[in-house]
Amino acid sequence: MTENLVDEAAPAPVKEPARPRRTSGEALARRRRLTSVTRPWLLLAPSLAVLAALLLWPLIQVGKLSFQEYAVKFGGGVGTWVGFDNYSGLLEQSDFWKTVLPNTVLFTFACVALTLGVGTLVALLLNRLGPAWKVICSTSIMAAWAMPAITGTYVWVWLFAAQDGLFPKALDAVGLVDAETANFFTDRLSFYLIATLNVVHHSFPFVAITVLAGLVTIPKELYEAAMLDGANAWQRFWRVTVPTIKPVFTVVTILSTIWDFKVFTQIYAMPGGNGTQPEMANLGVFSYIQAFAKQDYGTGAAAAVMLTLVLIVITIIYIRTLFKEGEDL
Amino acid sequence: MRRSTLASRVGLPVAVAALLLFTLLPVYWMITTALDPQASLRGADVLPTGWTLDNFSTVLDQGNFGRFLLNSAIVGVATIVVSGLLALFAAVAVARFKFKFRTSVLIMVLIVQMVPLEALVIPLFIQMRDYELLNSLLGLSIVYIALSLPFAIWTLRGFVLTVPKEVEEAAYIDGCSWWRMFRSVLLPLVAPGLVATSVFAFITAWNEFVFAYTFMKDSEKYSAAVGIYQFFGEHGTDWGAVMSASTLITIPVLIFFIIVQRRLASGLAAGAVKG
Predict the structure, then answer these.
(1) pTM of the predicted structure, to 2 decimals
(2) Interval B243-258: pLDDT, tens
């Protein structure tokens, strides 16, 4: 401070107009430091407010709702605390153990396994193609990816539609089924086979593109060395490709698991998927039907909370994986 | 690979053919059925029984799909304008500033992105009912802004990181304020990223079903996804009409997707691989 005073006392040289402003220069520096602390938060504030109000707050609300009996009275809803009744009621339902849980788990497992398998094979294929065919194939993959879930579902329903659909007719022609009587949507297994086909068709492009991005980073020398050692294609894939880009596989596996666990539209929009065939529901659809069709918001919320908890556990594993890779956030 | 074995000479074309068949069959079948005057008689034929545009006029006139598509477009545009702006600010904050809890903010954004919509739809339905925002395009847009934000922040963060810090410093030396630097230097440089992110946010809003279906009970306010769900409920066996409605909903997304495919794919891949 004293230094500043002395400076100010000294006559300012004419050619340095900045000099007399040095006191305010110090204040400016302090203000700069302050803005460098507040500015990121000012920039973040709108986004954080939106996320807090529309994602975080509802999550707290659904947790609260899962411990309540919620009734709609005129002038708004009224919640009565019931403790763990919704959860115990849910776990006592035989439907929950016999259909909802197996549907969810087996469907997720099948979708993830197939998505990864198909996606990886397609990535390996794309990696071997010349430029022209690569563009053609990746564009067609984009077409599969771009299909909205709802219209994609109707297209698959139409392909398998009783009597008139492509596959019943084709299978009828070779004598496997009778197109007049066969209905693929009333049997749980075939219902879910179609749903699996739909989901895999929609989600393998992401895996293919991501794995391809990993494949191109693998040094060619590794394969040459493996070939000199006499490794065949199968061995090269498992001994060179998989270990080298293991983090990529881990990430796509976890992300696919998260996405396939919460599939809703592709089940709900199928014939009977909206609750008219209760045995077709997975956890998400079950929660929705309980809440909105049966007006039992408490049980619906309890099922939703269980789904959320599973996903949060998987998400935490995902984040830990990212950190283990040494990712600098 | 220099070796060209018999397996690779035969296997590669077979694999390409299988891939093209699997990926394009649904799109092909959808479009050809939409143009088919008697879709239910087609069976397993490769070509439709004829060619007509009647199905499209059916869904646009009787099905009111013009209105539904417009609703979806309005909601989509509102979503991208607001979420693009908010996400850009947030992305600059996490990419350019070092501050306490930065990592926590990033992780929180990552976690909320994984929350299932089925868990959000129950409380948000009650919330929106209390604020009388059901059956309102505004209420739906607000929800979609929140849904598209986490991904937009992550993607844009990647784009902001690619802009060299020296460019910003040069702007400061030239006497720019932070805000001026943001508008005249950073914004033009991340514009391509903003476009890709916006396209993705638009597609999210355009495709979304659960919220639109739960919130919109007035048929004038249906989004396209809800419109086709209700239309299917009433005309389930009129496959020509259902597929032409599907085509109308799918084509814009398809075009957008193919236009931005390179940028989007590499961005997504980078987002997944590098976090």
Answers:
(1) 0.88
(2) 999 999 999 998 888 7
